[in-house]
Write a structure and sequence with these properties.
Oligomer: single chain
CATH class of the largest domain: Mainly Alpha
Keywords: Cell membrane, Membrane, Transmembrane, Transmembrane helix, Transport
Protein name: ABC transporter permease
Mean pLDDT: 79
Number of strands: 2
Subcellular location: Cell membrane
Order of helices and strands: HHEEHHHHHHHHHHH
Distance between the termini: 41 Å
Membrane topology: Multi-pass membrane protein
Family: Belongs to the binding-protein-dependent transport system permease family.
Low-confidence stretches: 1-38
Length: about 325
Amino acid sequence: MRDTTTVEDSMTDTQIAGAPSAGAVVSKGGRKKKKDREASLWSDAIDDLRRNPVFLIGAFLVLCLLVISAVPQWFTDGSPFDSTACVLQDSLKTPSAEHWFGYDIQGCDVYTRTVWAARNSVIVGIVTTTLVTVIGGALGLLAGWTGGIVDSILSRFTEIFFAIPLLLGGMLIMSALPGNAWTVSLVLAILGWPQIFRIMRSSVLQNKNNDYVVAARALGAGTLRITLRHILPNAIAPVIVVGAISLGVYISAEAALSYLGIGVQPPEISWGLMVSDASVRWLQAPHVLLFPAVALSITVLAFIMVGDAVRDALDPKLR
């Protein structure tokens, strides 16, 4: 057995100097290059998501849903949605080769209505999540970073909204407002932002006393720079996770409000409104209820899958 010490001692200085160091890449000219990308939470999360089948399936379903919502005419006859394009003599006809989803009680094509209903449901989910994230995130960042009397006032103000159940409060407010996707989004955002506020505030409190924040403050960095460059990027991960999961929840809430008759109103269309209309004759014609309900379930499931995958990728403890 050869002595490794003798081998190492026999190496010349040139050979040692020319050996590539760990983490470096040798180019054709013999020069060493550092890796193009350093490891970080976000880069590791992206790599993890690329290999996660749950995320890939959920992201594919979400992408399909966004395309259908943006250009529903591509998936129907190319004409704009017309709620009056119904023929009573076709009422409750079962699915066929020409009309895949059959007809509802008014003689309207269920497939066309299901496709066009995706737009309002997705609008509610995306707009509500955006408003909730911006409002709750900004106030939570302010409360967590400032502390003191500002934190106390915002926390007590948030507790008032926490005492109002989402659906019950939505029913109360929507009963006095016009029913459309934008109104529903605004009402749900008003009632839903406290959750994001608490998550952002807690995350900021965990990060504000870390070494990198103390070092930045010692080097003379201003409050705005520390907040935007150090606190926010490290505190936003839990908010993104909750926002992704909550998007499906808000779509379900819109469907519930529309089912109760105080959400999206005719001549607009949504999956909740279709389920409400179909509930009268669902035993006689189950296909009228089945297809919008399945579309709603798949949509909610897709966003929950994406949110769960993002949570697992951004939480090192779950790896």
